[in-house]
Amino acid sequence: MKSLLANDYLVLMARVFVGFVFVFASVDKVAQPDEFAASIANYKLVPDSLAMLTATVLPWVELLCGLGILAGVFFRGSSLVATIMSIVFALAVGSALVRGLDIACGCFSQDPSVGKINWEKMVQNILLVGFSLYLLYSTSDRFKLERLIRQSQTGNSSA
Amino acid sequence: MTILRQAVRESLILALAACVLGFSYTAMSEKAFFQQKKAPGRLRQLATLAPSMISLEQAKSLFDSGAIFLDARHLYEFKQGHIRGAVKVPLNEFDAKKSDLAKFPTEKALITYCDGVECNSSIALAAKLHEAGFRNVKIFFRGWQDWTASKLPTETSR
């Protein structure tokens, strides 16, 4: 398990996967907060004003999170937020399916004709939870901007 | 433990940055909370394509005169309750069940509705009906919400 968490290339692969998923997922929502708010409201889990607030902030959280994981800055924080978001998304999709709502996912595209919610979406989100948790506890520091910054700082102080 | 502490600290900074970015972007682009109150462009565009909108009073008198109400909401919501005598035409099944529409006379008033002002499927359904050749289509835009609020006749189906 320890060696798995420390494996440079496994961690890099997981980073690329999770990072790109979040960056791709955020683009459409960042550009169309109103449409995303409607998508959230369709789940009938939160009042409309809260849906609007979520639609204003959440896409940027996703974007920063994805970029953080890809670049390896704010890495632990990004991984934690990615884990929490994936759990929430999985629960939201699951609860909508249980209630029999036939709604667009709003996961990647805000076009309602793309991607209805289904159990597959939930499995995808659970996979994402797994990868994000793995990243949160991973110990490999290779290919991260944070390491470069740290190295340059210690380099300066010793010089 | 230190991992989690660091993660929580970093995620708070991340959330704060996202708030700043989100609110500045929507303020600059006049979206979401900063939306101008005029009718959204997409709605206006759909409205010109689609038949006219009617008020609750007009819907009521058309109901009394025997117009056909079409429920554009999802089947699930239709089963929970709908305008009495309304026919379910869920927007997402429209194309698959186009042939069923033949039973409606093209000149008789057809009134589409969905949940209320928050949804556009009544408009979209009316536009589709218009395209399919129905010429007396009206949109009861305030829909189910206003209908039930005024305690007008409804029914459920299981």
Q: What is the alpha-carbon Rg of chain A in Å?
A: 18 Å
Beta-strand percentage range of chain B:
5-15%
* CATH homology group of the largest domain in chain B: Rhodanese-like domain
Strands of chain B, total number: 7
CATH class of the largest domain in chain B: Alpha Beta
Shape of chain A: elongated
Provide structural commentary.
The complex is a heterodimer of chains A (159) and B (158). The longest helix of chain A has 24 residues, at 8-31. The model of chain A has no long low-confidence stretch (mean pLDDT 90). Chain A is elongated, with a radius of gyration of 18 Å. Chain A is built from seven helices and no strands. Chain A is an all-alpha fold and 159 residues long. Chain A has one domain (2-158). Chain A has helices spanning 2-6, 8-31, 33-42, 48-71, 75-98, 119-137, 145-158. Helices cover 75% and strands 0% of the residues of chain A. Chain B has 158 residues and is α/β, with parallel strands linked by helices. Chain B folds into two domains: 2-34; 41-155, Rhodanese-like domain (Oxidized Rhodanese, domain 1, 3-Layer(aba) Sandwich), CATH 3.40.250.10. In chain B, the strands form two sheets. In chain B, strands 1-6-5-2-4 form a five-stranded parallel sheet. Chain B has a two-stranded antiparallel sheet with strand order 3-7. The longest helix of chain B has 28 residues, at 2-29. Chain B is elongated and about 70 Å long. The N and C termini of chain B lie far apart (53 Å). Classes of the chains: A mainly alpha (159), B alpha/beta (158). The interface between A and B is medium-sized, with 37 and 31 residues.
